[in-house]
Amino acid sequence: GPSPGLSGAGMFADRTAPGADVQSLWRSARSARCEAKTCQTGKISTAEAAAQSHAARDAAVQTEQGKDVVQDFQQEVQVDYTGLLSFLQRVEDTVIKELNKNWKSHAFDGFEVNWTDQDETVLCLHTLSYPKAQDQNLQVTSVSWNATGSVIACSYGRLDNGDWSTEKSYVCTWNLDRRGLNPQHPDLVVDVPSSVMCLAFHPSQPSLIAGGLFSGELVVWDTSRTEDPVIWRTGMTDDTHTDPVYQVYWLPDTKHRNHARLLSVATDGKILVWREERDGRLALAEGFAIMAQQVPRSTRLKKAAWGEAAVGVTSLSFSHFDADVFVVGVEGGYSLRCSALAQAAALPRPGGSVPLRAPAEFAFSPHAGPVYSVSCSPFHRQVLHGGCYQNLFLSCGTDGQVHLHSMLQTQPLFALQLSKKYLFCVCWSPVRPLVFAAASGEGVHLFDLARSKQKPTVSLKQSMSDCPVYCLEFNTKHTRLLAAGDAAGTVKVWQLSSDFTEQGPREMSHLEQLASEIMD
């Protein structure tokens, strides 16, 4: 807190100090279901302290006002001057000593007061969980918002090692707009025979949700059918993934507006596209396989392990500007730029009903361990000579680093050592071009590159203990909401401050500049 010198100065100020705001925020944060432990609190209190010292200077000026004002003031308040004088004489030495000490202190060197702060706090609105899943020590492996933005779904499973393939698990949904919302009683619970590794709500049909299982299967549920919600599934065939599915993604089907296709990625190195059949089957429409020979040799892995890790796909993100370009992250530590138009056959040819193609075109400078998440910027597009353009993307992984890349060069534009622990997920804000969130072994980190390229603007502790956060998703309809799922089996819905959702005046040009500075 502020030193006695500063608080003393504040006492004599006769205008309201901004400290009152902090109390009300603290109260509302307390009344929310959980406290947001953010690194912001420190910053705010130092700003208050600085503000109070200004108040003291103002007070000095105010004493020189007209005599009438003083008389009015005296009529209102009876002042015990003798008492005041003896009090001032008593504290004078202490106050002078403290002021001198503060004068020499370097505590505020380089500190600038930011007067434009609107709503700095990030509040936790909901803490959701399914006690039965927590009793089985299941973790939240994935979260997804539905098309209306009011329903949040989470999948339960296990991300750490062990044979969890036989473990039964759950998909749960909560409608946050419902009046009788019970955070420990989901609106819908679907029992699933295998651990669910990933989830994705359909982009336009609010009740459809796809999941990828530990067994390699894909399932699509219709949450409006409470009796038997399964409407499509791959089953176990020669086409099914032979490894856990780590991401599912709905592809817009340009030819048939109502039939979105489903894309899945797994650590067996395959990227598969499925179409819905009438009999409730998901049939393989086309597919790709990452080939070890398309990935640069990593010196960090033994030969035997290399082949498998090189191709194990953990995550995928499509360019928002070219539907045929996507980036994948692999267990071998690389991010790869891929083309959906690639014609080369994947060799040796994997079994299955459809020949797979080799999509990888370009490998980026690797992380020091497996990549767990990639995310293409929804905003940045720069057209360069020859008609090709660059797009920015983020990657993160077990080395605790976030890399910001341009699609066109191997080296990252910058690499941030964010954590000593693993990073599990990274995603760009849907509304602020310079904002992204990352999930780590310690919690949730929110970045605003307009403020700093070195450190998070806010770090949120998901729980009192250091609990890894595995998954994050911004809400594109209610843009102040961010959902985060953790290893303890809870989903927190965070309400971001307006700082994170309102675009600054030159934000797009700031992003362009960030990319081009480094291109030169």
Automatic annotation (TrEMBL):
SMART domains in alphabetical order: WD40 (SM00320)
**Pfam families registered for this protein in UniProt:** WD40 (PF00400)
A GO cellular-component term linked to this record: ciliary plasm
GO aspect biological process, one term: intraciliary transport
Record-linked InterPro entries: Dynein_IC, WD40/YVTN_repeat-like_dom_sf, WD40_repeat_dom_sf, WD40_rpt
Q: Where can this protein be found?
A: Cytoplasm
Q: Which GO terms describe its molecular function?
A: dynein heavy chain binding; dynein light chain binding
Recorded hits in SUPFAM superfamilies, A to Z, give:
WD40 repeat-like (SSF50978)
The UniProt keywords, alphabetically, are: Cytoplasm, Repeat, WD repeat
Q: What is this protein called?
A: WDR34 protein
Q: Give the species this sequence originates from.
A: Tychaedon coryphoeus (Karoo scrub-robin)
Gene encoding the protein: Wdr34
